[in-house]
Design brief:
2 domains, mainly alpha, 63% helix
Length: 103
């Protein structure tokens, strides 16, 4: 395993000059590194929590209006939770990776 990593690094150094094919490791095969995927998963959980917070409040009888649909939880808290979760997903995707070379 260590020999493959060493060969990978050597190939990556020489790929610009020689035109050789480069072996990629597991992290380079994905568009996003695993650390970002973990944070995106957490943000998606918050979106789901927001969906649960906004749900409910209906009436079983169609002739009766239920004012519970205008509760503070459904009108303010749930949209804010989902809004900040979506903002964090966008930020996580757009954030530059720590390991990228800026040559």
């Amino acid at each position: 395993m260590k020999d493959n990593k060493k060969q990978n690094k050597d190939l990556q150094k020489n790929k610009k000059n020689t035109g050789q094919k480069v072996m990629l490791n597991d992290e380079e095969l994905f568009a996003l590194p695993p650390e970002k995927l973990k944070w995106i998963g957490i943000a998606v959980l918050f979106v789901i929590i927001g969906m649960f917070l906004v749900s409910g409040g209906g009436s079983k009888d169609p002739n009766v209006f239920n004012y519970d649909i205008f509760s503070f939880r459904r009108v303010v808290i749930a949209p804010l939770v989902m809004f900040f979760a979506y903002l964090s997903i966008i930020y996580i995707i757009m954030k530059k990776n720590k390991k990228t070379d800026t040559k």
